[in-house]
Design goal:
Length: 295
């Protein structure tokens, strides 16, 4: 199986999760290759640090930060049980190529509205990729969660019944992950009884791909070709959308139910917008300017 850790927002823990997912599968005796598709090369740096310190190699790490990933990753998968792709932030061609290579996309996100808005852009790319890969499966992974916070619980509850759903397992914000990254090790190698190690080795995380094969056929490659996949990968970025006026001076306050607030937040999340921008656009559509004088 080819699994890609992708999100256009940086700092959400893609590399950490990619390394630990590859590590857990390797510890189970699987043949694993990790593709570092991030031009920053953090996974490669981790692998080199591990070699310098004399630790045994758990899995292969190769650098492949180019937009032909969707052609090359399936070839690498022939000699592995699992391929894990550590994706880049905000490099559209590489992201699209990784989406076409993957069978399962994991979207790491922190429980914050800022990550939600950024992840909305990722969801749009996934929908476009499904034109070429209708069987592509996606899941959110809540990462870097502060312990017992209301926002983490609300985010998980809000995403639980939406597409793509969120994995039940959550990964905490723990110093052990930074220590492991610096030393070229996994958190279980530092202390296999630590909370970080238990989160990573928990069965819900290890089996993240178990349900995927029941959602898709065993056939690899492109399920259909309604268009040119290579051209889509190389689609130039559209110009940035024009900004809304900066002179909003009137304030409108309403009370809503918690359930409605949750639905509003999820809808804005999926559209890659702030709640304020989405509601302004809604009000503009419902109450168009008819040229009359303001009250």
């Amino acid at each position: 199986m080819i699994v890609a850790l992708l999100n256009q927002k940086g700092g959400v823990g893609k590399t950490t999760l990619a390394l630990h997912l590859a590590g857990e599968w390797s510890r189970e005796g699987k043949r694993v290759t990790l593709i570092d598709a991030d031009p920053q090369g953090s996974a490669l740096d981790w692998s080199e640090q591990r070699a310098r310190d004399g630790f045994p190699r758990l899995f292969g790490v190769i650098g492949l930060a180019r937009d032909t990933l969707h052609r090359e990753a399936p070839e690498l998968a022939r000699d592995a049980d699992h391929v894990v792709i550590d994706g880049p932030p905000r490099v559209a061609g590489l992201l699209r190529s990784a989406l076409l290579a993957a069978e399962l996309v994991l979207i790491p996100a922190q429980p914050s509205p800022f990550d939600g808005w950024a992840s909305g852009e990722m969801l749009k790319l996934i929908e476009e990729a499904r034109i070429f890969r209708p069987l592509l499966v996606a899941r959110f992974v809540l990462n870097r969660c502060a312990a017992r916070t209301i926002i983490a619980r609300e985010t998980a509850e809000t995403l639980a019944e939406h597409e793509p759903p969120v994995l039940a397992a959550r990964i905490g914000q723990r110093v052990a992950f930074a220590d492991a990254a610096q030393s070229g090790r996994l958190v279980a190698e530092l202390d296999d009884a630590s909370p970080a190690a238990r989160e990573i080795t928990g069965s819900r995380w290890r089996s993240c791909g178990a349900g995927v094969m029941s959602e898709r056929s065993a056939k690899r490659g492109f399920a259909s070709r309604p268009g040119d996949a290579d051209s889509w990968v190389r689609t130039p970025e559209p110009p940035p959308a024009s900004r809304l006026p900066e002179d909003f001076s009137a304030r409108l306050t309403i009370d809503v139910t918690p359930a409605l607030r949750g639905r509003i937040k999820v809808t804005a999340f999926r559209r890659g917008m702030t709640v304020a921008d989405m509601l302004r656009a809604l009000l503009d559509r419902e109450f168009p300017d008819d040229g009359g004088a303001a009250p």
